[in-house]
Amino acid sequence: MTTVRQACRHIRSKNAGPFWVTIDLFFDGERNFKKYAESPALGPEALARLYGADASLVKRYAVPSLHMVKVSYPRANAQGGEVERDMHCGQQFVRLLDVELD
Predict the structure, then answer these.
(1) H or E segment to which residue 5 belongs
(2) Distance in angstroms (rounded) separating the CA atoms of residues 43 and 26
(3) What 8-state DSSP symbol labels residue 11?
């Protein structure tokens, strides 16, 4: 089984405003991009389960020219809230690293 960590050369997560998180998955080439960009493992339902979001609000955008997929979902709590543990969402991508794409 191929994992996200194996298929991507770079993965990052960040704020997309105070209410949203964005994860960028840069695949390591056109072959892996074409093979995995539409994988159900990166679909709204799978990401909603992984991040505790509403699947109907998860957005996925493919950027073929960059061999990249961008996924955005609403934060559980607004940025800077009382229970904030990752203010800039820079660690959110880690949950995806071992997700199997095959």
Answers:
(1) helix 4-7
(2) 16
(3) E
Range of the domain at 81: 4-96
Measured CA to CA, the distance from residue 88 to residue 63 in angstroms comes to: 23
Number of domains in the chain: 1
Candidates 23, 30, 29; CA nearest to 99 is 23
Residue from 75, 23, 69, 20 nearest 52 by CA: 75
Burial group, residue 7, by CB count within 10 angstroms (0-12, 13-18, 19+): buried
The pLDDT, as a whole number, for residue 40 is: 96
Mean pLDDT of 20-26: 97
Q: What is the pLDDT of residues 38-93, one digit of tens each?
A: 999 999 999 999 999 999 999 999 999 999 999 999 998 888 888 777 889 999 99
* Residue 101 falls inside a structural domain: no
Of 23, 22, 28, give the one whose Cα is nearest residue 2.
28
Q: What is the pLDDT of residue 77?
A: 81
